[in-house]
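INFO batch 0412 | record 1 of 1 | parsing
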Amino acid sequence: MTTTSATSSIVASLGGGSGIDMAGLATSLAEASFAARKDRLTTRSDTLERQISAASNLKSMILQLASSVGDRVRSGDVSTQPSIANSAVASVSRGVASGSGSYSLEVTQLAAGQTLTGPAYAAGTAPTGSGTLTLRFGTISGSTFAEDTARSPAAITIPSGATLAQVAGAINAANTGVSAYVAQGADGAHLMLKGSEGSANGFILEASETPGEKGLAALAWTPAAAPERLKATAQSAEFKLDGLAMTSASNKISDLVPGLSLALTGTNAGAPTTIRFSEPTAAATSFMQDLTSALNELAAELGKGVDPRTGDLARDSGARTLRRTMSQLAGSTIMPGAAPGQPATLADLGLATNRDGTFRLDTARLSATLKASPEGVAAMFTTGIRGVYASLDRIARSAASTLDPGSLGASVARYSSQQARISEDQTRLTEAQEKLRSTLTARFAQTDTRVGASRSTLSFLQNQIDAWNAPRN
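INFO prediction complete | emitting tokens
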């Protein structure tokens, strides 16, 4: 202990009376005066450091667990996945919800955008005249155009001296859903216009010329006036799902049915293909095995922290709250909207709690649930507000919060604040100790001077006495 060493130093500095180290004595006395308080602060600081480390580690573990579960759910590792027999017709992907079962798909027409070409010019740098180009949108059928009056026309200003390439740039800058570029054909440069997919996204082009700067009217187009310039007509996708005729303005169709999104890539008229969802059995079992192991790692660390004899968090409210939450995890309802007979808890997925707070996987119960309700199991592994991930994420967020005094986050903040105050107290004690040492040093210096003078006087007197007592011849 510091107190013992400081006291020993004082005793040693007094020596045998042949002289005292006044500076060393002042330092030792100052250290001894504050040693007990410094020892108490050091002990408390060490304890707080261990508590901060233990609470931070637990908080990090639960946050990492929730994050890992989220990553795995988002990757689709534990959800049912669709597959298609004829991959030339469409690519399939998992939608927002969980899908199941099988479907037939027959695609008779892909969605396409209108493609229109302008007349031939000598080059992309050729002047076009100036004025205003106006795009009107609607449906084109043969030589007729039916305008969509609910959609506003787009007026595009073409400045004086504009070139064909600049006209393309002005159309693109308008962001109307029609893109433009200049292509060099066999007969010259052409302004190419491409619209969005869907039969309602057809368009015509009108031109209003600036007086005295003619030429822009050459770019105007209607299907009746120049049908040869229409290279592709806007059309919607047409397909049948389980025999039911459907249309889509885009080839990309999200959540066509629960859990199924399509990207149409080809046609298979008269030869329907099959889409099937995988069963979640193997993926769900693997996931629950990994989750059980991860929960046991957390439970072991938590048990060590709250041990009443050796745990640094034995009396910590945040650790106790987390332990209580973990003990209730298996039986807590994580799918409150589940229909009767559908899985609603982690216990339904085989998670069981042992008496010591650890977990085990009841594979028999998990297998029974998977057999009885594979769709219900798949629904528990989504990124929505319900399910395995959402429940663990809520626990992790609650544990990390600094607003709830009963959370690990609040515990870390509280311990850190206490440690900061202790650090300030240690600084103040060090300053006070140094002040006392300086004061004692000054006082002892004066004493040392007086002692030195007394010794000089004593030496003079002793010499006189010796002289008086000396034999005379």
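INFO post-check: Confidence is low (pLDDT under 50) at residues 10-18.
INFO record closed
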